[in-house]
Specification:
This protein is about 60% helix and about 10% strand. The chain is α/β, with parallel strands linked by helices. Among the domains are: about 160 residues, Nucleotide cyclase, GGDEF domain (Alpha-Beta Plaits, 2-Layer Sandwich), CATH 3.30.70; about 220 residues, Rossmann fold (3-Layer(aba) Sandwich), CATH 3.40.50.300; about 60 residues; about 160 residues, Tetratricopeptide repeat domain (Serine Threonine Protein Phosphatase 5, Tetratricopeptide repeat, Alpha Horseshoe), CATH 1.25.40.10. It is globular. Pfam families: AAA_16, Guanylate_cyc. GO terms for molecular function: adenylate cyclase activity; ATP binding.
Length: about 1100
C-alpha cells in the first residue's frame, strides 16, 4: 500500500454565522438564494487567490492555497466582499475565517493533518467578520502584501493538546465605485419626467431586487418617440444618484461596429473602475477583454495577450471575461446598471453577448435596461430569437410603453410651459393628445412647431398664450409632417446641410460634414447651431465638433425626403470624404466605408464596395463577431453577382471567408460553401487556396461518424496532390484526410502512409501548435485500430504535453478527450478521470458549446462506469441538448449508445428497440446498430428476428464489418446474440476475433460495456470451455474492481454464475448462489433492474430446486 507524501500546505476554513437562524427567519426559498450568493462571493475570492476548494462544509468551505500570503489575501477578499454586499442588503451575511499552515498529506482529493484541524478550530473560534490565523502563518506572510495583524495571544482550541499562538487580520472595507454618469446620459431634457408613476414604481422595486443580489433585466419597448430611452435614462440616473455604477451603450442603424454597445459601455467601466477590480479581473481572465477594450492594457500594466485558439473558443473566453468584469464590478459596489439602447439595430454578436450575460450572471447586483422598437422587428429579426429566449429566464421584466394619458399630456405641457394649464391650455392639451395619441416626442414636436409658427407666444406675465382658436392652429396630423415643417423653417441652407448629415448617420462630426458639403466649417457651424437652438440637433458629449440628431425620427425623415439618386450621390461623397479624413484610423471606420460604398449604387465603384465589405468582414472575424462577418461577406458576394469585374481568386477568398464565418456561427452550409471555394481554386489552379478551403472544412476531428464524407475526402486529396512537397499546409491536410477516410480506406496501404508522413513533416517544422493539431487528427484516425493501442496511448500522451504548452483551451480539451477515449479502452481509470476533469474545467472556464458537449459526454461515460445510472443519463441528456443546439450532426448517434446501455441495465429494453430499427435505416453503414438490435431482440424473446440479423452478417462474414471505432462493440453484441441462440461456430469465430483485445474495455467511444474478459468468459462458457471462462471472469473482476465499475462487475458475477450452473461441477452451485446474491445486492443499490431480475430468477430456481 502506497503512503501519501507529506507536504507543507496552507489551509483556510470559512463559516457562515447563524445560518440556521437565518434560514428560519427568511424561509427555505430565500435562504437558498442567500446561500448561493454567499458561495459565489466565497468562490470569487478563492479563484482570485488561486486557491483550490477541497470541499464544501455546509455553510462554508475548506480551501488549500499556494502560500500563506495568498491565504491572507483570500481571507481579506472574502470579508471585504461580504461587507460590501451587506451595506445595502436586508439580510446580512457574516463570515468567520480561520487559517493555518504546516505539514499534511493528500488522499483521494482530501487533505489531512494538523494544519487542517488548526484552521477549522480557529474558524470556529473567530467572531463574525473576523479572520484568525496561526502565528506561524503570520510569520510566513512576512512583508508580502500590506497587511496589519493584531496578536490575540495563545488560544485554547478544541481537540488540540497545546494552546495555539494566534493573531487577527485587520482588514479594511472597500470603497464604493465612483464611475461618473456616461456623457450621453448627462444631457437630459429641460422638462422633468412626468407620468407613468405605476411603471416607475415597479422599476424601483426591480432595482431593489438587483441591489439585493438578483440580476434583473428590464426590456422597454414601444413605438418610435414613445419615451423608451427617456424612461431608461431616468431609472439609470436615479440609481446613479444613489451610488450605482451606470454604463451606457447604444446601437446605430447600418453603421454598427461589432459589439458597439458593449465596447462603449465597457470602455467607461475600464476607464473608471478601481485598480483592484481590474487587477482581480486580469488575474482571473487574463487579457481576453482587450479584444473589445484595448484600453485595459493601457490602464493596467503587464496585461497578458489574449489566448490564441479557434474563433469559437476565443469568443467564449471573451464572453466569459465580460461576465467576469461585470460580476467583479457588481461585487465591489452598490449596483451596476447597464443601459443598452435601440437593440432593434443591434448586431448579432452584441445580442449573443447579451444572451450570454443574462444566462451566466444570475446572482449579482446587476440591472440591465434594454430598449427596442417592437414595430421594427419580425419573426426573422435576430432580436426575436433573443426575446423568445429571455422569456424563459428568471428576473426579466417587460415594459410595453403606450401613449401618455390625457392628464399626463397636460402635465407634460405644463412642465414645458413652466406654469399650470387653464381654459384654452387644457383644450390645447386635449387636441394635442388626440392628434398624437400621447406619443411624448410627437407632443413636444407639436409644441415646438406651434411656438415657431407663432401659434403659441409667451405673454407679458411669462405665461404662454394661444394666438388663435384651437381648430385654426393647424396641428400636424403625423410626426413626419411636424418634423418636415420644423426643419424647413430653418431655411434652405440648413435643410441641405442636415440632409447630408442625416445620410452620414444619426451622429456625425463637423469635419466630415464640411468635406461632404464643401462648405467651410465656420459657416456650417452657424447652421448647425441654429438646428441645435431649434432642438433638431444637440451637441454630442462624445467630443467637440460632434452632433447628434435629437431623435432617430428626424434623420429618418430627412433621408426619406431625398430622391434615390441624391442619396446615392451623397453616399459616394461621404465614402470619399471618410477616406480623406480617416488617415491611419481607417480600420476603425471600415463598417462605415463598406456601408456607404454599398449604398452608393452602380454609379460608384463596386470594386471599392466589395473591398471594404471584405475588410469589414475580416475585421469582424478578428473581433470574434462571426455573425457580423457573415453579413459583410454575404453582401460582398451579392455585389459580385451584379457583374463586377473581380478576379476568381478574390471570389474564392470571399467564399473561404464566408465558409469560415458560417462554420463559426454554426451554419451547416459552411461545408458546401468551402467545397465550392475549393472547386473555384481548382479551376484556376491555385493550390494554396485549395488547401485553405479544405483545411477550413472541418469541425476539428472526424466530420461524420455515420458515413464517410466523400466530397470532403476528395477535396483534401485534391489539395494534397496540388500543394508542393514543402507546403506548410501539407501535414495538416494529410492528417485530416487520414481522419476523414479511416473507416473506409485500407489502413496499411492508405491510412498508415498518410499518418506517418503527416507526423514526419509536422515534427520537422517544430511548430508545437501545428504538431498538436496534426496529432489530434492522427489520434482520431487511430481509434479504428484497437491493435495499435500502444501507439495511440503514446501519441495522446504527447498531445497532452503539447496542449499544455500552447495555452489553447480547445486544443487542450480535444487532447484530453482523445486521451480519455484511449485511457478508458485500456482501463486506465485514473488517467481517464483526470482527462474528464480537465475537459470539464476547460469547458466551464470558456463556456464554449463544443467543449461543453465533450465535457458532459465524457462525464456520462464516467458516471455509467461508476454505476451512477441517473447521473449518467443526466449528463448524456445535457450533451444531447447542447449538441442539437449547436447543430452537431452526430449528437443523437453519440447519445443513442449511452441511452441504450442505460435502458438495458434499467430493464427497459422495449423502449429502445423501435428506435434501433429506425436508426438502422438512417445509418446502414454503422455495424454496431444491427449487432445491438439483434441482442436486444434476443433478450426480449424475439429469437427468430435476432437470428435473421445474425444470419445476414454471418453470410457476409465478420471480415466485412467496417474497421471503425464500433467494431469491437459490434463483435461483442454479435457474440452475445450467438451465445443466446446457441450458434457455436459463430461463437468460436467471434471469440477468436475478440481474444487479442482481452485486456481492453469494450468501449466504442459513446459508452463502455465491460471488460472484454466478461464477453470472452461468456463465449467460452457457451462453448463448454469452462476453465477458460473461469480465467476470463476472474480477470474481469480484477479490472472492474480496479476501475471502480460495480455494475460491470455485478453483470460479470451474473455471467460467471450462469457458467458455473451450466458446468454444474462440485461446489459450483454454492459458488454461483453466492455470486448471484452479491450481484443482486450491488444492482439493487445502483438501480440495475435487469440484473436484479435475472439474478432473482436464478436464485429462486436454485433455492426451489
Amino acid at each position: 500500500m502506497m503512503v501519501a507524501p507529506v507536504e507543507t500546505v496552507t489551509v483556510l476554513f470559512t463559516d457562515l454565522v447563524d445560518s440556521t437562524a437565518l434560514a428560519s427567519r427568511v424561509g427555505p426559498e430565500r435562504a437558498e438564494e442567500l446561500r448561493v450568493e454567499h458561495f459565489r462571493l466565497l468562490r470569487e475570492a478563492i479563484v482570485g487567490a488561486n486557491g483550490f476548494e477541497v470541499k464544501n462544509t455546509g455553510d462554508g468551505v475548506m480551501v488549500v492555497l499556494p502560500s500563506a500570503a495568498a491565504a491572507v489575501e483570500c481571507a481579506q477578499a472574502i470579508q471585504q466582499r461580504h461587507e460590501l454586499r451587506n451595506r445595502h442588503a436586508a439580510e446580512e451575511l457574516l463570515v468567520r475565517v480561520g487559517i493555518s499552515m504546516g505539514d499534511a498529506t493528500r488522499s483521494e482529493g482530501d487533505v489531512f493533518g494538523p494544519p487542517v484541524v488548526e484552521a477549522a478550530r480557529l474558524c470556529a473560534k473567530a467572531n463574525p467578520g473576523q479572520v484568525l490565523l496561526s502565528e506561524v502563518t503570520r510569520v510566513m506572510v512576512g512583508r508580502r502584501g500590506e497587511h496589519t495583524f493584531r496578536s490575540v495571544g495563545d488560544l485554547e482550541l478544541k481537540g488540540l493538546p497545546e494552546p495555539v499562538a494566534a493573531c487577527e487580520l485587520v482588514w479594511a472595507s472597500l470603497a464604493a465605485a465612483t464611475t461618473p454618469l456616461p456623457p450621453r446620459l448627462q444631457v437630459l431634457p429641460l422638462t422633468p419626467y412626468v407620468g407613468r408613476e405605476g411603471i416607475r414604481a415597479r422599476l424601483s422595486q426591480v432595482r431593489q431586487l438587483a441591489i439585493d443580489g438578483a440580476r434583473q433585466v428590464v426590456l422597454i419597448t414601444g413605438e418610435p418617440g414613445i419615451g423608451k430611452t427617456r424612461l431608461a435614462t431616468h431609472v439609470a440616473s436615479e440609481a446613479h444618484a444613489e451610488g450605482a455604477t451606470v454604463l451606457f451603450g447604444h446601437c446605430d442603424e447600418e453603421l454598427m461596429a461589432s459589439y458597439q454597445p458593449w465596447v462603449q459601455a465597457l470602455r467607461d467601466l475600464v476607464e473608471h473602475a478601481p485598480m483592484e477590480v481590474l487587477a482581480q479581473h486580469v488575474g482571473e481572465h487574463g487579457g481576453e477583454l482587450c479584444r473589445l477594450v484595448p484600453e485595459l492594457a493601457r490602464r493596467l500594466p503587464n496585461v497578458p495577450a489574449p489566448r490564441v485558439s479557434d474563433r469559437e473558443t476565443e469568443r467564449c473566453l471573451l464572453f466569459g471575461a465580460v461576465v467576469g468584469l461585470l460580476g467583479c464590478a457588481a461585487a465591489q459596489g452598490l449596483l451596476v446598471v447597464l443601459l443598452l439602447d435601440d437593440l432593434h439595430w443591434a448586431d448579432k454578436p452584441s445580442l449573443a453577448l447579451l444572451k450570454h450575460v443574462v444566462a451566466h450572471v444570475v446572482q449579482a447586483r446587476l440591472l440591465l435596461l434594454c430598449t427596442y422598437r417592437d414595430s421594427d422587428i419580425d419573426a426573422n429579426h435576430p432580436l426575436s430569437a433573443l426575446l423568445a429566449d429571455l422569456r424563459r429566464e428568471a428576473g426579466v421584466e417587460w415594459v410595453a410603453l403606450q401613449g401618455l394619458a390625457q392628464q399626463e399630456v397636460e402635465s407634460l405641457i405644463a412642465a414645458a410651459a413652466g406654469h399650470e394649464l387653464t381654459g384654452k391650455g387644457l383644450e390645447l392639451a386635449a387636441a394635442v393628445r388626440g392628434e398624437s395619441d400621447g406619443n411624448p416626442f410627437f407632443v413636444t414636436e407639436i409644441l415646438r412647431d406651434l411656438v415657431e409658427s407663432g401659434g403659441l407666444v409667451r405673454g407679458d406675465g411669462g405665461r404662454y398664450v394661444i394666438t388663435a382658436e384651437i381648430a385654426e392652429l393647424g396641428i400636424p396630423c403625423s410626426v413626419r409632417d411636424v418634423v418636415v415643417q420644423r426643419i424647413h423653417r430653418l431655411g434652405p441652407d440648413a435643410v441641405s446641410a442636415l440632409c447630408a448629415a442625416a445620410v452620414i448617420g444619426r451622429e456625425f462630426d463637423l469635419e466630415l460634414l464640411s468635406v461632404v458639403t464643401e462648405r467651410c466649417e465656420d459657416d456650417l457651424l452657424a447652421v448647425l447651431e441654429s438646428a441645435v437652438a431649434g432642438s433638431v440637433l444637440r451637441e454630442s458629449p462624445q467630443g467637440l465638433g460632434r452632433f447628434v440628431f435629437e431623435h432617430a425620427l428626424i434623420n429618418h425623415t430627412l433621408c426619406e425626403d431625398l430622391s434615390r439618386t441624391r442619396r446615392a450621390r451623397l453616399h459616394t461623397r461621404i465614402a470619399q470624404a471618410i477616406e480623406d479624413v480617416a488617415g491611419d484610423n481607417i480600420d476603425e471606420r471600415l463598417s462605415e466605408l463598406a456601408y456607404h460604398w454599398a449604398a452608393a449604387g452602380p454609379a460608384a465603384s463596386a470594386g471599392k464596395a466589395i473591398a471594404y465589405a471584405r475588410r469589414a468582414g475580416e475585421r469582424a472575424l478578428a473581433q470574434l463577431a462571426p455573425d457580423e462577418a457573415l453579413r459583410w461577406f454575404t453582401r460582398a458576394l451579392k455585389q459580385l453577382a451584379t457583374g463586377c469585374d473581380v478576379s476568381e481568386a478574390d471570389r474564392c477568398d470571399l467564399m473561404i471567408l464566408l465558409g469560415e464565418a458560417q462554420c463559426q456561427t454554426g451554419e451547416p452550409a459552411y461545408r458546401d460553401t468551402l467545397l465550392a471555394a475549393g472547386d473555384i481554386a481548382s479551376c484556376i489552379g491555385d493550390a494554396e487556396r485549395m488547401a485553405k478551403a479544405a483545411i477550413a472544412n472541418t469541425r476539428g476531428w472526424l466530420s461524420n461518424v455515420v458515413e464517410v464524407d466523400a466530397e470532403r475526402v476528395a477535396a483534401l486529396q485534391a489539395a494534397i496532390d496540388a500543394v508542393p512537397a514543402g507546403s506548410p499546409h501539407r501535414p495538416l491536410l494529410l492528417a485530416q484526410l487520414a481522419a476523414e477516410a479511416c473507416v473506409a480506406w485500407d489502413f496499411a496501404s492508405r491510412i498508415r502512409p498518410l499518418i506517418d508522413e503527416a507526423q514526419q513533416l509536422a515534427r520537422k517544422d517544430c511548430d508545437k501548435h501545428a504538431l498538436a493539431r496534426v496529432l489530434t487528427f492522427v489520434s482520431s484516425a487511430l481509434v479504428v485500430r484497437p491493435d495499435l493501442m500502444a501507439e495511440r496511448m503514446a501519441l495522446t500522451g504527447e498531445l497532452m504535453v503539447l496542449a499544455d504548452g500552447v495555452d489553447d483551451p480547445l486544443l487542450g480539451c480535444m487532447a484530453a478527450a482523445m486521451r480519455f477515449f484511449a485511457a478508458v479502452e485500456v482501463a486506465d481509470i485514473r488517467e481517464a478521470r483526470e482527462c474528464a476533469h480537465r475537459t470539464w474545467r476547460l469547458s466551464e472556464r470558456t463556456g464554449q458549446p463544443w467543449m461543453r458537449w465533450i465535457a458532459r459526454f465524457v462525464a456520462g461515460v464516467i458516471a455509467a462506469m461508476g454505476g451512477e445510472l441517473e447521473l449518467a443519463e443526466k449528463h448524456a441528456s445535457d450533451a444531447l441538448k447542447i449538441g442539437v443546439a449547436i447543430g452537431f450532426p452526430d449528437a443523437f448517434f453519440f447519445y443513442s449508445p449511452q441511452l441504450n446501455y442505460l435502458r438495458y441495465e434499467q430493464g427497459r429494453l422495449e423502449e429502445v428497440i423501435d428506435a434501433n430499427v429506425e436508426m438502422r435505416k438512417l445509418a446502414p453503414g454503422l455495424s454496431s446498430i444491427p449487432a445491438r438490435l439483434s441482442f436486444y431482440l434476443a433478450e426480449t424473446g424475439r429469437l427468430d428476428e435476432a437470428g435473421e440479423l445474425l444470419s445476414e452478417v454471418t453470410q457476409a462474414g465478420f471480415g466485412s464489418l467496417n474497421h471503425d471505432y464500433l467494431r469491437l462493440y459490434a463483435l461483442a453484441y454479435w457474440g452475445l446474440t450467438a451465445a443466446r441462440l446457441g450458434e457455436r461456430s459463430v461463437i468460436a469465430e467471434i471469440y477468436d476475433l475478440l481474444y487479442p483485445y482481452r485486456g481492453h474495455l469494450i468501449y466504442p467511444v459513446p459508452i463502455a460495456l465491460s471488460s472484454a474478459h466478461t464477453i470472452l468468459g461468456h463465449l467460452a462458457g457457451a462453448l463448454g470451455r469452462f476453465d477458460d471462462a473461469e480465467g476470463h471472469f476472474a480477470a474481469a473482476t480484477t479490472v472492474h474492481e480496479r476501475i471502480g465499475a460495480p455494475l460491470f462487475e455485478a453483470r460479470n458475477q451474473l455471467c460467471w454464475a450462469q457458467m458455473l450452473l451450466s458446468r454444474n461441477a462440485d461446489a459450483d452451485t454454492p459458488r454461483a448462489l453466492a455470486m448471484l446474491h452479491r450481484a443482486r445486492d450491488t444492482a439493487t443499490e445502483l438501480g440495475g433492474v435487469a440484473i436484479v431480475r435475472d439474478t432473482t430468477h436464478l436464485i429462486d430456481a436454485i433455492e426451489t430446486h
